[in-house]
Amino acid sequence: MALIPMRTLLDHAAENEYGVAAFNVNNMEQIQAIMMAANETESPVIVQASRGARSYSDDNYLRHLMVAAAELNPHIPMAMHQDHGNSPATCISAMDMDFTSVMMDGSLEEDGKTPASWDYNVRVTREVVEAAHARGVTVEAELGCLGGIEDGQGAGLSEEEAQDHLTDPDEAGRFVEETGCDALAVAIGTSHGAYKFKKKPTGKVLRMEVIREIHSRMPNCHMVMHGSSSVPKELVDIINEYGGSIPETYGVPVEDIQEGIRHGVRKVNVDTDNRLAITGAIRKAFAEDGAEFDPRYYLKPARVAMAEVCKARMISFGQAGNAAGVEMKTLEDLKSYYAMA
Ligand SMILES: [Zn+2]
After folding, report:
1. Cα(4)–Cα(337) distance, rounded to whole angstroms?
2. Catalytic residue set
3. Half-sphere exposure of 282 toward its Cβ, with a 13 Å CA cutoff?
4. If you measure from the C-alpha of residue 269 to the centroid of ligand 1, how many angstroms do you get, rounded to a whole number?
5. Which of 336, 333, 330, 328 is closest to 44 using CA atoms?
6. pTM, 2 dp
7. Among 145-149, 187-191, 217-221, 336-340, whose mean pLDDT is lowest?
8. DSSP code at position 165
9. For residue range 201-229, what is the model confidence (pLDDT) as tens digits?
10. Is 253 exposed, middle or buried (0-12, 13-18, 19+ CB in 10 A)?
11. Distance of CA 211 to CAs 88, 222, 257, Å?
């Protein structure tokens, strides 16, 4: 088994100056696609499940699929992460299912919609950090709010409104100190979902200086970029060529993510690009042979299309080739590490 605490992976990424893509999963084919890409590029991986994914798959299906991926790939270090936990209870339930990392998103209240107060965010994050570190589990927290909504999580801010909820570098240091979190998700003007920017983003809307500023003040802070799909035109075009109707839209360019990685970003959440790849492949398969009805006929190319996106991100973020270098630490190892800290 190669399930490791996410902290171990982020520390290795920091020491070796690379970023790790965190891919969301809902079913077997998505998990297999990530592992195919990890094997081909020799990458360590973060596989993450949102609350929506856990309820879609009834928790236990997803848990066993992720554990199966770890068992079948003992040479690939893999962190199993809860994406956007809305409450301490959600995070604890993930730990009870052997997740090695959780995100307590206290930037929003428990409804997953209302921007929360500083005090609330610090209180719930601190509570999760205490419970998690006692088990050796890693904690990601969030300060500031992203735009959009994904899987029912998000304040639904527009591209413009998101600019008023950026992470304040002055507050970031105090927040990390008061909560003890292992990684900090920052808001830099991006949104969840496919509709991030109406035109190719400039420095006015994609505020990379927030990342540079936090990194210069806290060089050891592991930052996380959410809403970081690049929404490549080629993938949108395939969907539209085969009957889709996705309007013109722009994501976060890979070069900007690489710039973030040079300044302390260690985890990069990617979901939309994989969704686009899967949907394009399925639409194409349907269009090419209307007489086929075996789900494997369209799920196989969908899985390959997602693996291609994962591979490309693993290479661009620099995690490729790093699987063998990451120590296979256990939650027990991290428990002692936190107890000493
Ligand atoms: Zn997110």
Report:
1. 14
2. 83
3. 16
4. 7
5. 328
6. 0.97
7. 145-149
8. G
9. 888 889 999 999 999 999 999 999 999 99
10. middle
11. 27, 11, 11
Ligand 1 center to 84 CA (angstroms): 6
What pairs with residue 85 in β-bridges?
104
How far is the centre of ligand 1, averaged over its atoms, from the C-alpha of 13 (Å)? 20
Alpha carbon separation from 291 to 7, 57, 172, 279, 296 (Å, rounded): 49, 29, 56, 19, 14
Tokens for 4, please give them.
Answer: 């490791």
CB atoms within 10 A of CB 145: 22
Q: How far apart are the first and last CA of the chain?
A: 27
What pLDDT, in 10s, does the model give residues 225-247? 999 999 999 999 999 999 999 99
Could you tell me the two tokens for 73?
A: 């790939």
Report d(CA 59, CA 277) in Å as an integer: 25
